[in-house]
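Why does residue order matter? Because the sequence determines the fold. Keep that principle in mind as you read this record.
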Amino acid sequence: MRLVVPLSILLLAGCATAEVEPSVGDQAETPPVETEQPPEPVAPVEPEPVITTASVYAIGDILLHDSVYNAAATDDGFDFNPGLQAIAPILQGADIAIANQESMIGGSEIGLSSYPAFNSPYEIGDALQQAGIDLVTTANNHTLDRGVRAIENSIDHWNAIGMPYTGSFISEEDKANIRTLTENDISFAFLAYTYGTNGVVPKQPYHVNYIDLDLIRRDVEKAEDAADLTVVSLHFGNEYEPLPNASQETLVQELADLGVDIIIGHHPHVLQPVAWVDGANGNRTFVAYSLGNFLSGQQGDERNTGGIVGIEVVKTTLEDETTFELANPVFYPTFTRRSSAGYFEVVPLQQAKPELFTPTSEHVSQWMPELEIMQ
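Structure:
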């Protein structure tokens, strides 16, 4: 007997065991998970320093003997401008230029005079200003040569032409006023003192500043409050000696210890070297022990050889801190001679006496090899 199974049952059984695999194309796509990236770190902005510079130049003694002012006479006064034309561009190129007016400019009205008691024409002041001088120092051994009248006349003229002066004054109030000049956001205070006045006693203590360490200390303290840097002119040393003496070096060290920044020396009538002097507080002072004669009637090559010294001040301000640095010292050797037209002129040493250029340069820079000698 055969067993007969209905076809429908077989079909149902086959369908029950079959599994359908989805095709690859039918699978659902899973979206990518997005993660936030940390921001790139921003480098801090470094503050930029603000740097400014100002140059200070100085010249030596203006001591007008009768030979000098007589040679500058005109029909209606005196004209010293031609004698300063050759070096005027150097002085005008400085931010600040100062001169030692050794003979008082009391003017012709009280009588001009020469050695040993000097009195000079007003016009030398005008010529110095036109040549580029911004301030004059007037404390020296000839300040009192012609008395109070010459001092008052001199100061009247300096005020009339707007030329700052320091070293001799007409009142205590005038003396107490510290002279300052500012260039390129750098301020300078100027002081001046002399070793003596040839035995002449001033009628008032303010008529001339003498070298007195207590006085200088008080003045320097006021100057430090009034300006960024302090410049002191000293009339000191021995005449015609090419090197500073022990007293000069001691005084310079004492002023450096007080914080004086620049010291300009006069009186020997010959050049003495330029030097750096370290102060007690780690400061460095620039010193020209003697700039010799700039314009005078003295004779002899050494007494007619002078120069223009210059130093640059670099001011650096970074955030709330400001520092000052003395840099790039320079020296222009000069020579005074009578011109072919008869007047006295100041010209570059290389032009007048080329044979003196090298020994003069070596002499002035012997204690400061980096001093740049300009031609």
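The chain has a mean pLDDT of 92.
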